Amino acid sequence: MTGTGIDRVEEVNLPKPPLKKNRRFMKHMVHLFLLPALIFYVGFMIYPIFQALINSLFSWKGLLRGEFIGLQNFIRLFTESPFKETFTRALGHNVVFFIGTMLCKLVVAFILALLINSKIRGKEWFKTLFFVPKLLSVIVVGFLFSLILNPTYGALNTFLKAIGLEELARPWLGDPNTALYTIIVVNSWYGIGFAVLIFLVGLQAISPEIYEAARIDGASGFLMIYKITIPLAMPSIMIMSILTFIGAFETFELIYAMQGSSGGPYYSTDVLGLYFYRLAFGSVGGGESIGLGSALAVVLLLLISGATAVSMYFFKRKEVDH
Question: Which of 68, 212, 261, 319 has most Cβ atoms within 10 angstroms of its Cβ?
Fold first, then answer.
């Protein structure tokens, strides 16, 4: 209390929290949350790739690594029988699998996305219905369709006979002429829901004002889809095309579940994934199977990576800003 009788409260200078230090600390703490995903990615993706590359450069005696032989495993894979014939046949089946999936899945999925994106009733119900198969395991789908397509008691042949179309009934998975195409249809049914959702996202991103301007100019029907919808939906088309290509050249589980590791009948459904499985873990490559299998894995990686890069470059040039 001063002499004037007026109380004064002295200001107390409290220490201010170190805001800059706290912010810097929290910024580094955020990076720690990425560490588990980074460890998982390096341990299960990056390390196996480098390990496969190293293994492909050595000879093998069972599980024991031998001497360094350079590119000899790759040379054997492309020039020595029966490796070169099996590789060529399996690669051809992968190409057919990709083209068939593009036609069966992506074309149909894009048409369904156009219908759902229009003003129809129950569009949410249709989106859920198409996506339900994707919730199932690939092994479950393969086993289920193996029962449906059974030539003796399968539901498909039974239905065809019941409606008087018994001449169409056949051993769908037992005939070399139909086995691969049958699996392509099953694979398309399994993945069509995901493709529909991706296409829907691309279609809903297109501004309605663009369509209104096109209608004023006299555009309608298929011309509007060809000139406006497809170019503006190119990013989603690019994504699904690339994912379909990668999936077609990595396909393994569905064919393995429906036809086994041999890709029967008579190797008519054999693909590079099955060939790698037999080569690396079977008896195809003899005592040097790990080296040959690793060489095939590296070739498959380069094939997928190169084709994906070229496809992205091509699609990027086709994109239209809106």
Answer: 261
